[in-house]
Amino acid sequence: MPHAFDPASDAHTFLAFDYGTRRTGVAVGTRLLGTARPLTTLQAQGKAVFALVEPLLAQWQPDALVVGLPFHPDGAPHANTELARRFMRGLHGRFGLPVFGVDERYSTTEALSQGADQAHVDAVSAAIILTQFLRNLE
C-alpha cells in the first residue's frame, strides 16, 4: 500500500500559485532552503491558465504544488475561495501532482508593503504564500 504524501519529507521543490480570475502569480521554492522567489504572472482566464502552467512544471519539475486560498479577515470563505479550490482540483487532475491549499489572507497587502508594483504583486504574493507553507513544514 503506498504511503500518504508527506510534504515535509517527500517533496523538495514546490511551485505556488496566487490564483486570480485574470492573473495568477507563480513562485518557486525548496524545502531545503525554506525560501521562495517570485517567478512570473500568468495572464489567462479560466482553463486557459493550465496551458501556461504546463511549461513551468516541465521547467521546474516540482514535487508538489501550493495554491493560496482567499478568506475574509474573519476566516469565512468568499466567492474566490471556491474558484481557488476548483483551480487546485484542476491542477491535480491535469498534472497528477499533490496540491496543498494555504490561507492567503493579507498576502497581497504584504507584497505591496514589500514594494511590489502592480505588475509583480501576484508573483510576490505567491512567494509569500509558499514561504508561509514552507515555514509550516518545519
Short description:
This protein is α/β, with parallel strands linked by helices. It has 4 helices and 5 strands, in the order βββαβαβαα.
Describe this structure in words.
The chain is α/β, with parallel strands linked by helices and 138 residues long. The chain has a domain at 54-68 and 85-94. The chain is 39% helix and 25% strand. It has helices at residues 48-60, 79-95, 107-113, 121-137; strands at 13-18, 23-30, 35-43, 64-69, 99-103. The chain has a 5-stranded mixed beta sheet, with helices on both faces. Helix 3 packs across helix 4. This is Putative pre-16S rRNA nuclease. One of its GO terms (molecular function) is nuclease activity.
Topology:
Blueprint (H helix, E strand, L loop, with lengths): L12 E6 L4 E8 L4 E9 L4 H13 L3 E6 L9 H17 L3 E5 L3 H7 L7 H17 L1
Q: What's the overall average pLDDT, rounded? A: 87
Q: Cα-atom Rg, whole angstroms? A: 14 Å
Strands in their spatial order, largest beta sheet: 3-2-1-4-5
Strand content: 15-25%
Instruction: Report the end-to-end length measured between terminal Cα atoms.
Output: 27 Å
Outline: globular
Count of separate DSSP helical elements: 4
